[in-house]
Amino acid sequence: MDIVIPLFDRFEPLDAIGPYEMLGYLPGATVRFVTEQPGLVQDVLGSLPVHVATRYSDVERCDVLLIPGGGSFLAMVDDADFVAWVRRMHATTRFTTSVCTGSLVLGAAGLLDGLPATTHWDAVADLEAYGAVYSTERVVRHDRVITSAGVSSGIDMALQLSALLTDELTAQAIQLYTEYDPEPPFTTGSVAKAPAEVVARARTLG
Amino acid sequence: MDIVIPLFDRFEPLDAIGPYEMLGYLPGATVRFVTEQPGLVQDVLGSLPVHVATRYSDVERCDVLLIPGGGSFLAMVDDADFVAWVRRMHATTRFTTSVCTGSLVLGAAGLLDGLPATTHWDAVADLEAYGAVYSTERVVRHDRVITSAGVSSGIDMALQLSALLTDELTAQAIQLYTEYDPEPPFTTGSVAKAPAEVVARARTLG
Hints:
The structure is a homodimer. Chain A has helices spanning about 15-25, 70-80, 80-90, 100-110, 125-130, 155-165, 170-175, 195-205, and strands at about 1-5, 30-35, 40, 50, 55, 65, 95-100, 115, 135, 140, 145-150. Chain A is α/β, with parallel strands linked by helices. Chain A has a single domain, classed as 3-Layer(aba) Sandwich (Rossmann fold), CATH 3.40.50.880. In chain A, the strands form three sheets. A seven-stranded mixed beta sheet of chain A has the order 5-2-1-6-7-11-10, with helices on both faces. A two-stranded antiparallel ribbon of chain A has the order 3-4. In chain A, helix 1 (about 15-25) packs parallel to helix 6 and helix 6 (about 155-165) runs antiparallel to helix 7 (about 170-175). In chain A, about 55% of the residues are buried. At the A-B interface, helix 1, strand 2, helix 6, helix 7 and helix 8 of A face helix 1, strand 2, helix 6, helix 7 and helix 8 of B.
């Protein structure tokens, strides 16, 4: 089972690494990061240069494509070759997935037109501009396409995906191994729950 | 504010990157990864080589020390120079922290003797061997020392720590920015809740 995660400069670390942590424990799965030019790829926070050895254009098919978001989505959606590659890959996958603003890349590839999808809460208008129908669900599945909300939602998505790719026992074991029994310290994790001053402050962080 | 995260080969990706994602948005904070020999450091799953530029022994003080776990803890606890460095750093920090089996490094440095602490659910005996008093809490704080449970618990710990280092509004904004409103697909995220067959299966994953 070949799982491919494209990383471009300014990727959001948890968008990519949350799902990688979960999917990396799937028996028989290989998770590969791919990029435009092999070498070091820097994250949006600036302290996590990851060495990516594989050029995306050298990959011709995969079982799962997972597009993380972050500052990298801008370069991704503007790169016609990359967007065309995403479209070609989608024809080969069992599941084509995204975390956070990674869904905008799926939108640019024409994969979300008229379909329910999600993205980071502050990028909803961008998603709708691609013809997607925004859903407030944290993980949105339509047939082979799964999008998830902002940053940390990729963990929930990847565990659901793990069950689809294998079975519930395996996914449950991964959830236990990674001790994913979250206790968020505050109730401000979604715009539906956060007070206006928290939303305003969060908008200054990105 | 200088936050330092040592990475050794076979580190558990989410142990390090979950907290990095949260702490990296703290205004005025710098998060730095450090290692034994600068260069590429490979994670336990084998697909995430991170380029780490700073030798830990070149760091003489920091505000926060955060030790991730994973397969790297074995090399860490066996390295007397590193353990001595952790002890020296602790004398300079505002908070000395760990995720997962990273707490065993704090134990080896003598920082947990007689104190409440936690670790990955499958490493409790190892923790107790260092004289720590195991707590079933997900995040355990004793004065300046904060330990958290397995892998994903570092996210909860880092958000609590963010509030301690700055203020609740900032921590709440980070929780919203990263859309941390978790919806785990199963109820098997802790040994207290998981059926025996899930525990048995999880033990085969590591």
